[in-house]
Amino acid sequence: MATKIEWAQEVWNPIIGCSKVSAGCRNCYAERMANRLAHMGVEGYDEVVAHSGKWAGKTVFVKSQLEKPLHLKKPRRIFVCSMGDLFHESVPDEWLNRVFDVIQRNPQHKFILLTKRPRRMADYINHVFAARVFDLPFWLTNVWAGVTVESQDCLWRVKELGRLLTAVRFVSVEPMLGPVRFSRPLIPRGIYGQSSVSYSTLFNNIDWVICGGESGPGARLMHPDWARDLRDECRAAGVPFFFKQWGEYCHPDQMPEDTYSAVDAAHNLAGYVDRPWKVGRKKAGRLLDGEMWDQFPAQEYK
Question: For labelling alongside 170, which of 74, 126, 199, 211 has CA 20 to 30 A away?
Fold first, then answer.
């Protein structure tokens, strides 16, 4: 269950499987890993991956994984369903009930839920699950609920966060495919009959922002200004900012000095400092303007 994901300490996959819904899904790392696990014969993965190696659009409840958090003695930050989307449309409420029962029984852990399907998440937590418990705000202090916003087009997902009765509401801007500015209107006037949503309204829904570039085959570029502007906006609003990675590509003025020196010496790229270099995720590092941004939310119920 241990993980190398920088903002989590464990992963827990009682439900696996997914399907792609937006541009950020194009090079899904979980899909690649699921295909590998299917060929290794790991339980359930042959059902969620098609012969093409892509998501089959199905989900599987992995009973053998359900009680894993009960065996962790020390309090941990646990990323739930790193190999799928917990709130996928094919996941029945019965499966969610069983997962949330485990969450409820383990208040010492922080359970991190990340989805691209925020309406399902909000409807389940605020209605289906709320009907099953009495002291909702108390125990939900161990749930951190977030949405992926890979581009400005996906900012609508942030609106749903404001509905959630959870301890922490966060946004993962990864992979960052373009500028994301919470100061822009969420929905332009006239569309669907809704009014613009202001800067302050969006940040009132957010307790934490994660940002990162894309890694793996087919990785797309992230411009330093996109990450820098998002960091500055978070600082101005007092929202903790976590910079996860540059991804496969990194601009020369952002990469660690030892990486820059080694790559330049090997490829004589000193004359190409105005464009990003493909150096790989590890060598690109996690420094933004020479600093490590590892901020976490001050957990408060809002």
Answer: 74
- Distance (Å, rounded) from C-alpha 163 to C-alpha 17? 26
- Chain centroid to CA 269: 33
Look at the chain and report how many structural domains it folds into: 2
Task: Note whether 161 and 262 are same-domain residues.
Answer: no
Take residue 105 and report the two structure tokens written for it. 């029984």
232 in the same domain as 264: no
Query: How many C-beta atoms surround the C-beta of residue 204 within 10 A?
Result: 14
Domain span at 265 = 252-285
Two structure tokens written together for 205: 């829904």
Contact 3, 76 (CB under 8 A): no
Whether residue 256 contacts residue 287, with contact meaning beta carbons closer than 8 Å, is answered with: yes
Would you say residue 198 has pLDDT above 50?
Answer: no
Indicate if 242 and 267 belong to the same structural domain: no
* Better-scored residue on pLDDT, 262 or 131: 262
Contacts for 136 with CB less than 8 Å, ≥ 6 apart:
130, 165
Q: Are residues 139 and 279 in the same domain?
A: no
| Mean pLDDT for the chain overall | 89
Q: Are 241 and 202 in contact (CB under 8 A)?
A: no
* Structure tokens belonging to residue 113: 């839920």
Task: Decide the pairing of beta strands 249-250 and 277-278.
Answer: antiparallel
pLDDT, mean of residues 8-18: 98
Q: How far is CA 236 from the centre of its chain?
A: 22
- Read off the pLDDT of residues 212-263 as tens digits, 9 standing for 90 and up: 999 999 999 999 999 999 999 999 888 999 999 999 999 999 999 999 889 8
Q: Under a CB-based contact definition with an 8 Å cutoff, are residues 40 and 47 in contact?
A: no
Return the structure tokens found at 272: 């190409």
